[in-house]
Fold each of these.
Amino acid sequence: MINKYVPVITIDGPSASGKGTICKIVSKILGWNILSSGLIYRSFAFFLKKNKIETCVYQNYDLLIKYLNIFIYRGLFFYFLKDSNILNQIYTSEIGNIASRLSVHYLVRKLLLPYHYFFKIPPGLVADGRDMGTVVFPDANIKIFIDSNINIRVKRRMLQLQKNNIYVSFSRLKYVMKDRDNRDCNRFHAPLFCSNDMFAIDSTLLSVEQVIDNVMQYVYKKLY
């Protein structure tokens, strides 16, 4: 059940726009709970890959839902959250690409939606994703959209992957990320877009500190 009296800040945006980093810092400043929606979908994608389930499952709707129910009823998402080794594996381009393909299915999104609400507890929640402010928490107190130039985003993701000893060429990663952007923005259910009630920030030429300053000024203005 959703607690309507818990304040929510949503931060949406494309891959490697910086929304995850901003979400972590804002939640720490406010002392609020944090949610990364992508982690939920990536966890399911990791489960499929780990069990060597063929990629045809993405097209076989009944089979896809069968494995999704196994994932849900075993409580594997919360199990994965406790394993740092698994978390490192979840944040790869391959897992992200699988997660993006899974997220276009309406029933997948519907069945995973309740997981988001477990995190909406006092004193508040800061949630990042691609449809946090438009679908998951449409009545959020504050909605933010962070975007950035694709080349900058590719460089950021490369650095993130290299920290986990994963190396990929710039051109290959750019192709994968542009393909994912296209899927995320054009999927029929819960597409990625900046709605009129969102505070939009282009982080291309901004440091993390500058983005945080902009976000927190807006947050304090709206909340207090």
Note: DSSP finds eleven helices and five strands in the chain.
Amino acid sequence: MKFKTFIFYWLPVLLYSGLIFYLSSLSKPIPDVLLVEFSYSDKLLHIIEYFILAFLVFRLLNFYKVSKAYLYAIILTVLYGITDEIHQLFVPGRFFSVYDIMANSIGALLVFANKYFYKKN
């Protein structure tokens, strides 16, 4: 693997997924400083967070010309979200949430929807 390929395609995925893991390892979640608090604002953060991850994974897979890169990006992102929720079972003060998995999955699926929106326009 070339160094440039690693820096531009692999490193963003590794750093971003590492950031997600780190944040979910905190006993107390970081307060929503940038968002106005409203019902389910944390779910919006999950959607955005996993949209970005799915996009980065898609970018990596697309670079390697993987057939159905969007589909694999969604699957990998959803699986990462599930394992992240399982990981939170072992973090004091955190818990497993099916609703978080749903929000993570919506974020990943929006990358696919984004593909079709821009393809039609």
Note: The mean pLDDT is 89.
